[in-house]
Automatic annotation (TrEMBL):
Species for this entry: Pseudomonas solani
Entry's transmembrane regions: none
Record domain HTH cro/C1-type: where: 8-63
Source superkingdom: Bacteria
Gene3D superfamilies xrefs: lambda repressor-like DNA-binding domains, Umud Fragment, subunit A
Name under which the protein is recorded: Peptidase
Amino acid sequence: MNTLGERIAHYRSLKRLSQKALAMACGWGSQSRVGNYEKNLREPGLDDLEKMSSALGVSIAVLLGEGDSKEAGGNAQVVAPADRSYRYPVLSSVSAGLWGDAVQPFEPGAEDEHIVSDYMGKGPCFWLRVDGDSMTAQYGESFPEGSMVLVDTGIEPRPGHLVIAKLVNDDKANFKQLVRDGGRSFLKPLNPTYPLIEINGNCRLVGVVVESRRRYI
């Protein structure tokens, strides 16, 4: 099973589900989406991966071909145990503007793209590429467009954390800082030209950003 499509088809077969049955379990109106994924004609984003992994009874890591590593949060390949180096998959882009589409098609071969880190995840971890400039600050901590952020889904988000938030019932996500003020929670951009976004049941917090990388040339 060398491709994501082959793995989807394999685990669907193990569950004795037709493409139509899997599509229905994921809440999709047509089996064509499953067929396109299995033929590698389209690449699923994080939201669709979550739905298929739940319906198939396997983790996203297994669908991505990462196996099961309890030591490294369930989805990392250990590169050099003595140095505590782990390879985490790059899943998709995430908007750092207002609510943006974070479930973009992979570039060719991106499902096999990984970045090595010495961070040992507490849960499944994924690298995401930042789009937009709302997390770009003139001073201090800054995440300009093109930065890579490592997200740990096994950490409980707390005020002050940098988080990935996802709109409920939509393929939208956002990268912001979680803050509380007057008993209310907000997503705060580091770029002061962008507004605060109040959390009022409109989103769920996917995970906490634990590391970032950026390329200079």
